[in-house]
Amino acid sequence: MNLVLAEGMQLTLYMDSDVDEFGSPDNLLVDGFVKFDKDNDRWLAQIDRDTYRHDSDERNNENE
Length: 64
Fold this sequence. Notes:
The chain has 1 helix and 4 strands; from the N terminus they run ββββα. The chain has one helix at 55-62, and strands at residues 10-15, 28-37, 42-47, 53-54. Strands 1, 2, 3 and 4 form a 4-stranded antiparallel beta sheet that branches. The longest helix has 8 residues, at 55-62.
């Protein structure tokens, strides 16, 4: 994947190790933006904790 990061780029991160109440995979999602840490010379993601949700929440909202 040739992803070019830029300061302030918006993104959605996911963790694929969560499951729903039936044991089916249900990714955990969170929104954030890209930030460069000059002191450590690396890219970071600054997340918005108010946007934590499950993939199934988004699917359910699309069906409404």
